[in-house]
Design goal:
Blueprint lengths: L9 H14 L14 E3 L6 E3 L18 H17 L3 H10 L14 E4 L6 E5 L1 H9 L4 H11 L7 E4 L2 E3 L3
Antiparallel strand pairs: 1-2, 3-4, 5-6
GO molecular function, one term: endonuclease activity
Keywords: Endonuclease, Hydrolase, Nuclease
Protein name: Endonuclease VII domain-containing protein
């Protein structure tokens, strides 16, 4: 209009718009009434307080489109898909085949996917300590054998053969 105002109020325009979209055969999300200071998450279907949402300055309400818990779950699923090419169901199946335990220590629950860094092939699911130990040994079987011998009491002391040349005992 000339005065810069709409002919109809916002709620009436919203109802009119929804009716037009339904007439076109488009899917219209129903409006969910929320108390002040709360927002509805379309992923989990729950109404949560603003403290459980990430900030998004470009959004009209200043909050993200999904709650923190849903974003974290989507992030974990995306990481598994990108990094290992597997879904959460594939990982859960692998954990179930290991009876839920780390296959190295047989004590802690298996939660971290272990993979070969050169081929990218998934080897199994380990606990944090075992997965990081293998990673810190550089996925090197010889280094692991030396660590086993060290724990057994046999120290692998290199022998100086020539200046700068060392020989490891066999």
């Amino acid at each position: 209009m000339r005065d810069g105002l709409q002919a109809y109020c916002r709620p009436c325009v919203a109802v009119y718009h929804q009716e037009r979209q339904l007439a076109k055969g488009k899917n219209v999300r129903p409006r969910v009434e929320t108390p002040p200071g709360h927002k509805y998450c379309r992923r989990c279907g729950e109404i949560k307080p603003h403290s459980e949402w990430h900030r998004n300055s470009s959004a009209s309400d200043g909050l993200s489109t999904s709650c923190k818990a849903c974003r974290a779950a989507a992030g974990r699923a995306g990481h598994l898909k990108r990094q290992y090419g597997m879904t959460e169901a594939d990982r859960d199946e692998l954990v179930a085949s290991q009876k839920g335990l780390c296959v190295i220590c047989l004590k802690n629950p298996a939660v971290h996917v272990d993979h070969c860094h050169s081929t990218g092939k998934v080897r199994g699911v380990l606990c944090f300590n075992c997965n990081s130990a293998i990673g810190k040994l550089g996925d090197d079987p010889d280094a692991l054998r030396r660590a086993i011998a060290y724990l057994g009491g046999n120290s692998w002391k290199p022998i100086l053969v020539a200046p700068g040349v060392y020989q490891l005992p066999s």
